[in-house]
Specification:
- The structure is a single chain.
- This protein has 319 residues and is mostly helical.
- The chain has one domain: MetI-like (MetI-like fold, Orthogonal Bundle).
- The chain has 13 helices and two strands, in the order ββααααααααααααα.
- The protein has a two-stranded antiparallel sheet.
- α3 crosses α12, α10 packs antiparallel against α13 and α12 packs antiparallel against α13.
- It is globular.
- The termini are far apart.
- The relative contact order is 0.12.
């Protein structure tokens, strides 16, 4: 009785042989993909999903002096805030107005200025690495350090800023921290100085991923630097720009430390943001239910703003 050995064929790399026949593909357990994402899912559920659920639950309860003793009130807290009547509702919507003003003033600067800075730092010149570190350095400081530092620098009586303006023959009695619109200049200017490096680093990383061949082809076609910016750089950075705009809107709408430490929410609460009112309601008045409802309303507004930005960039991408 003779046996027939299986025919052999070369492997793909040509270094050996394997028996002819159907290849066997080994599949792992269906749970394998979920095991890989499990650590993230656990962190997401504990630190994101659970707080949201607790916040939504708290907003439907009546809290008295920090204790959930008032029972279930449903949408009563939301109705009180949305009605626009009463001191608490008026103060909250005034805070939302202040938040909107700060966001509108700061977001364009925090999107455009870092982009221009990234374009400059993307060019090769001596000391480029040093300047990259210098522009990013303020971002590592905490809001308490930044607030106390600039509150002193902008002080109308002893602050070096007014002294410097006076030495240049400019007005030297500006109340940077206690009047408007000087207070807005202070808050927006300090925020840009503090956080410009973060967005610049994001832009810089994206600029380095743009293929150099596209710039070379554009030069051959006779385009200038401005034209290359519009036809090469911006189209490749559209997704990055979208991301930066969304996170900057969210960060600006959550501004609290600068107004609390630099302007002390002056004059007369004129720079007190929605987060400031939420903190006051929840941590001073101990009305956790109302503070939770305020937070949910602010969150819904931010979600709507983010969706609007995404739709705008999607439309721009089709043009």
């Amino acid at each position: 009785m003779s046996t027939v050995a299986p025919s052999l064929s070369p492997t793909r790399d040509g270094t050996g042989f394997r028996p002819d026949g159907p290849r066997r593909i080994r599949y792992g357990s269906p749970a394998t993909p979920y095991l890989f994402v499990a650590p993230f899912l656990v962190l997401f559920c504990v630190f994101v999903l659970a707080p949201i659920l607790v916040l939504a639950y708290s907003s439907t309860r009546q809290w008295i002096l920090g204790f959930d003793t008032g029972g279930f009130v449903g949408a009563e807290n939301y109705a009180t805030l949305l009605s626009g009547e009463g001191v608490l509702s008026e103060e909250f919507w005034n805070g939302m107005k202040v938040t909107a003003i700060f966001t509108v003033l700061s977001v364009p600067l925090l999107v455009v200025v870092p982009f221009g800075l990234a374009l400059l730092l993307n060019v090769r010149f001596p000391g480029r690495t040093f300047f990259r570190a210098v522009y990013f350095a303020p971002y590592v400081l905490g809001v308490a350090v930044v607030g106390v530092l600039w509150h002193f620098l902008l002080d109308a009586r002893v602050g070096p800023v007014n002294h410097l303006l006076g030495s240049l023959g400019l007005p030297d009695s500006i109340a940077w921290t206690t009047s408007l619109p000087a207070g807005w200049v202070s808050l927006v200017g300090v925020t840009v100085w503090w956080t410009v490096g973060f967005n610049a680093v994001i832009y810089l990383a994206a600029l380095q991923d743009v293929p150099a061949e596209l710039y070379e082809a554009a030069r051959i076609d006779g385009t200038n630097a401005w034209q290359r910016l519009w036809v090469v750089t911006l189209p490749h950075l559209r997704r990055v720009l979208q991301f930066v705009v969304v996170i900057t809107i969210i960060a600006s709408a959550n501004m609290y430390g600068q107004s609390a430490l630099i302007t002390n929410e002056q004059p007369g609460g004129g720079t007190r943001t929605a987060i400031g009112y939420i903190a006051q309601t929840g941590m001073q008045s101990y009305d956790i239910g109302m503070a939770s409802a305020m937070s949910m309303i602010l969150a819904v507004c931010l979600i709507a703003a983010s969706l609007l930005v995404n739709q705008i960039f999607r439309f721009v991408g089709k043009v």
